[in-house]
Amino acid sequence: MSEVSAVTVSCRVNGVPAELRGHPMDRLLDVLRVELLLTGTKEGCGEGECGACSVVIDGQLVNSCLVPLLHARGTSITTIEGVAKGDRLHAVQQAFITNGGAQCGICTPGMVLAAVTLLERTPEPSLDDIRTALAGNLCRCTGYTRIFEAVLQACRATPPET
Amino acid sequence: MRSFLPEFDLRAPANLVDALETLAHEPGTWRPFAGGTDLMVLLEAGKLPPGRYLSLWGLPELRGIEITDDEIVVGALTTYTDVLQSDALQAECPLVCRAAAETGGVATQNRGTIGGNIVNASPAADTPPALLVYDADVDLVSVRGVRRVPYDRFHLGYKHMDLAPDELVQSVRLARGRGGWLQAWRKVGTRRAQAISKVCLASAIDLTGAAVRDIRIALGSVAPTVARASLAEAAIRGRALTHETIAAGCNALARDITPIDDLRSTAEYRLRVARNLLEEFLSSAVA
């Protein structure tokens, strides 16, 4: 078959315009980590089961290991590096620290992004809502209870209008 | 082992017409690529056939849910999240929503599409049995026009479909007016979340009157394709829903399905569980 040329994809990453170059089927996960050095996004299973590579595209949580670079064109992407405002942690991040919601840390970026997108849609989630929203993010350390407690505390700390 | 990317191409057509012309001019060369939740997994595992893929993800013509007098028309690129957020589907096709809610986690639901699920043609897919309950038709679009195929005749064999190389699934049409039917969707897998089915059953029954006015039964993971259980339906339709009728339906079900042994389960277990799921649903309808 004919030579496949690299594509240049214009998008926004953490609010900043970015030009991403690569094969159209490169995994967004790899482009973020290797080209932009945004290594907060982790690779776990590489097949969309574990959620370690979660990022937010146009407000929706996705597994970046399953997003081809081409599908990033024209989108606005938020990675874990874009969640804090400068030195001010997001309420979810602070609650993870306060409640011991992170241990080895591999799942934590994805967990935080899954929780942040949940609270944007549902500012006062039930425990069931939290379990469902985080069901695609696997953690092998915490047993989840401290993570759920962190999310519950974060929504008490986050007034719905912010 | 990871695939060798130079053997692949992925292009985004400008619009649906451009996509259809590309498929028509180079038939069999381009394969459709939607949300990527199946194909990217295969790519990473080195199991995706090398070649040229046509990204449909950016085509608004294939998105959206439209409601007509007698149908709910679900665009092929409708995601599981779109399904779950549709008031019309929640009210009138609750089994499709149940299946969507049990498909992967939120991140998968945000990208996985109904059309992709249909064309991926896994016999273990969880949404297709629900589509069959609502007498789904599939609209197939090409440069030659739109062709409407009853979904229970779309899957011809394992991964073999009534779909020409230049055709795309445009939408799925679901019958309205099942609101008064008793409906159930059950998936049996290794665990509740994120596991592929051993058996999946979707069923709906119209019990207005002394006898069963109408019934739909469809299953996944028990045949080379998702399957409508026509013999079981015929054994139950028009009869009073007695224990004898239920037993006759469950016996007929054994002739509707052809389960196999594989890494997830055995034929014997699948047959037993399929019968039990149907019996449980029908017995709950009597109560």
What does this protein structure show overall?
The complex is a heterodimer of chains A (162) and B (287). Helix content of chain A is 31%, strand content 15%. With 162 residues, chain A is of the alpha+beta class. Chain A is globular, with a radius of gyration of 16 Å. The model of chain A has no long low-confidence stretch (mean pLDDT 94). In chain B, the strands form four sheets. Chain B has a five-stranded antiparallel sheet. In chain B, a hairpin with a 6-residue loop joins strand 13 and strand 14. By secondary structure, chain B is an alpha+beta fold.
Give a quick set of tags describing it.
heterodimer, A: 162 residues, alpha+beta, 5 helices, 5 strands, B: 287 residues, four-stranded antiparallel β-sheet
Secondary structure elements and their pairing?
The complex is a heterodimer of chains A (162) and B (287).
Chain A: E1 7-13, E2 16-22, H1 28-35, E3 54-57, E4 60-63, E5 76-78, H2 91-99, H3 108-121, H4 127-133, H5 145-157
Helix pairs in contact in A: 2-5
Chain B: E1 8-11, H1 16-25, E2 30-33, H2 39-44, E3 51-55, E4 65-67, E5 71-75, H3 80-84, H4 87-92, H5 94-101, H6 106-109, H7 114-120, H8 127-133, E6 137-142, E7 145-150, E8 155-157, E9 160-161, E10 168-175, E11 182-189, E12 197-206, E13 214-220, E14 227-228, H9 230-236, H10 243-256, H11 267-286
Parallel strand pairs in B: 1-3, 2-3
Antiparallel strand pairs in B: 4-5, 5-10, 6-7, 6-10, 8-9, 11-12, 12-13, 13-14
Helix pairs in contact in B: 5-8, 9-10, 10-11
Describe this structure in a few short sentences.
The complex is a heterodimer of chains A (about 160) and B (about 290). By secondary structure, chain A is α+β, with helices and mostly antiparallel strands. Chain A has helices spanning about 30-35, 90-100, 110-120, 125-135, 145-155; strands at about 5-15, 15-20, 55, 60-65, 75-80.
N- to C-terminal distance of chain B: 53 Å
Which shape of chain B, going by the Cα principal axes? Answer: globular
Count the beta strands of chain A: 5
Strand percentage of chain B lies at: 25-35%
Helical amount among residues of chain B, as a percent range? 25-40%
Radius of gyration of chain A: 16 Å
Q: How confident is the prediction overall: mean pLDDT of chain A?
A: 94
How far apart are the termini of chain A? 52 Å
How does the helix and strand content of chain B classify structurally? Answer: alpha+beta
Largest interface: A-B, 34 and 34 residues
Instruction: Give the overall shape of chain A.
Output: globular
Q: How is the main sheet of chain A built?
A: 5 strands, mixed
Structural class of chain A, by secondary structure, is: alpha+beta
List the secondary-structure elements of chain A in sequence, H or E: EEHEEEHHHH
Uncertain stretches of 5 or more adjacent residues of chain A: none
Task: Provide the spatial order of strands within the biggest beta sheet of chain B.
Answer: 4-5-10-6-7
Which value, in Å, is the CA radius of gyration of chain B? Answer: 19 Å
